[in-house]
Write a structure and sequence with these properties.
Elements: H1 3-21, H2 26-35, H3 41-132
């Protein structure tokens, strides 16, 4: 046979061997590859099959990674919304506490005023009682 015919025939042989290897395990393919001489049809078929399987696994991993990244992105957006809500709620609580503090100060002043008025009334009552005697 001429070298041109062998070149045409070899890809068909390698392709047929690849189809044969589709149902074999990784270990069996690797073993057959190591047992074959470098560049032989079996070696090329084993290498092609392993490259195909690795490519399929890489594609599946990329797809899974993409789905995980989408979920992470959604989770990040959700956490940002929760953070904004928490910040807003914290500001509202702070404003309420400031209002409560101011109301407490006004109440304290009112209590002191009530005590002062009560003491003045008490002294006035004592003064009136002592003036009568």
């Amino acid at each position: 046979m001429s070298p041109v015919m062998e070149e045409v025939k070899e890809p068909d042989t390698v392709q047929a061997l690849v189809q044969l290897l589709r149902s074999r395990s990784y270990e069996e393919i690797r073993q057959r590859m190591y047992d074959s001489s470098l560049g032989s049809n079996w070696w090329l078929a084993c290498r092609t099959e392993l490259d195909l399987r690795n490519g399929e696994q890489a594609a599946a991993a990329l797809s899974a990674t993409s789905r995980v990244l989408e979920r992470l992105h959604a989770s990040t957006e959700h956490f940002e919304q929760l953070g904004d809500t928490l910040h807003h709620t914290t500001e509202e609580v702070r404003d309420l506490l400031r209002g409560t503090l101011e109301a407490g100060r006004r109440l304290e002043i009112a209590v002191y005023a009530a005590i002062g008025i009560t003491l003045v009334q008490l002294f006035n009552l004592v003064f009136v009682l002592f003036n009568r005697r």
